[in-house]
Design a protein that fits this description.
single chain; five-stranded antiparallel β-sheet; 1 helix
Length: about 80
């Protein structure tokens, strides 16, 4: 189930999982908004998906990491 609200429009959020990295180096995690809803969020591909329950959210995060379609993060000049 996808959320229609922008992360910026939601009440304050907190990260409730370890911050993980995709193969391209983007950060992804599970966060809880001020209403107690859980979301899987990825900065690489802008995934922001509402998930019911912590175990399904963690499973969705782990499943997403190796399949994230984001390109490699540009780390700047070598």
């Amino acid at each position: 189930m996808a959320s229609t609200a922008s992360p910026d429009e939601l009440p304050s959020t907190e990260i409730v999982s370890r911050i993980q990295h995709t193969p391209a180096g983007a950060k992804a995690w599970v966060e809880r908004d001020g209403r107690g809803r859980l979301f899987v969020r990825c900065q690489g591909c802008t995934l922001y998906r509402l998930v019911d329950g912590m175990a399904p959210a963690l499973a969705a995060l782990v499943t997403h990491l190796p399949t994230c379609p984001a390109d490699a993060i540009d780390a700047g000049p070598a």
